[in-house]
Amino acid sequence: MSMLLEDFDYDLPEERIAQTPIEPRNASRLMVLDPVAKTIAHHHFYDLKQFVEPGDTLIFNDTRVMPARLIGHRAGTGGKVEIFLLRRIDANHWETLAKPGKKAQVGNEIEFSDELSCVVTDHTDFGGRIVEFRYDGIFEEILDRLGETPLPPYIHEKLEDKERYQTVYNREEGSAAAPTAGLHFTKEQMQELKDMGVNLGFLTLHVGLGTFRPVHTEHIEEHVMHKEYYSISDETAKLIMDTKAAGHRVIAVGTTSIRTLESAAESKDVIHGKSGWTGIFIYPGYDFKIVDAIITNFHLPKSTLIMLISAFAGRRFVLSAYKTAVEMKYRFFSFGDAMFLTRPQPVDERDAEMAELEEEHKQKGID
Fold first, then answer.
1. Contact (Cβ atoms closer than 8 angstroms) between residue 304 and residue 215
2. Against a cut of 0.70, is the pTM above it?
3. Single residue among 123, 146, 169 that ends a domain in this structure
4. How many Å from the N-terminal Cα to the C-terminal Cα in the chain?
5. H, E, C per residue of 231-256
6. Residue 82: beta bridge partners?
7. What sign results for the dihedral spanned by CA atoms 264, 37, 184, 152?
8. Lower CB count within 10 Å: N or C terminus of the chain?
9. Within this chain, do residues 227 and 359 fall inside the same structural domain, yes or no?
10. Structural domain includes residue 153
């Protein structure tokens, strides 16, 4: 059936959007949802150990956010131009976003300092730009000095400690945004979970343009996701397979981990080490192959991320949980609170819910 963008909308007062991170990281609140029993419980993130068991495996995305925001001026005119790095194509060419785009046409040169500039070489299908960087020295070192760690547009407060927008387990630089569900974990909490017999596994997905692209199509299945690079090691894949074989849960930390696991899955409960590019779009009707439980933040209305969570736990249950979160003054989005979805909604319930939604659309005269 066709699902509509408005099916994933909810009311969010602006004051519920977290502007600064809470300290310590795991002092954030944790809403625990059981999509089978339809229960909602309220805890703190440091209580997570109460809801995981020895033998369960937590899967983390170990990507690191690049200092991807460069502020420069167009050569000759001096007009200010912001270049946002998304993906490295080769040694000197990058896919980027340019603002304002009219000042970044093919052939335009943008200067950032005496040691770094770029020339626009092409447009992308998604409104971005391909640029070729020119520099004296080592690009990564120059970028580290001149670039700024990007924050989502809904965060207006200045971040005092830029490492607070990085997970404590980051290692593979390449993301344009943080895998924010992981921001709640402290090193001490991860060690505590490990000591109680919970497995910790890692994969990589470099968060790219898809994070910043809203859904504009009325029928959500017409939306096209931007591709992002991912990698899963043989070691992590074996850990997942062993966990499944032992009858324990694979718990994905964040939507980026979910998308990576489901992209790499070969069939139900089968996954092997691999890397590549994924444009997977998960929305209600999707049959999960690897993920048994989810730790995630609260997501933007009408976003692909709330659609993904709805595919796992049921649209109505998720939206009712969001309504409860607003009423109980949970903090939303990147620096906000978290939810733990302990198990998936049964397939027959999901099918029934989709059939009811289709009937509602028909009654409204929507094809």
1. yes
2. yes
3. 146
4. 9
5. EECHHHHHHHHHHHHCCCCEEEECHH
6. 71, 99
7. positive
8. C
9. yes
10. no
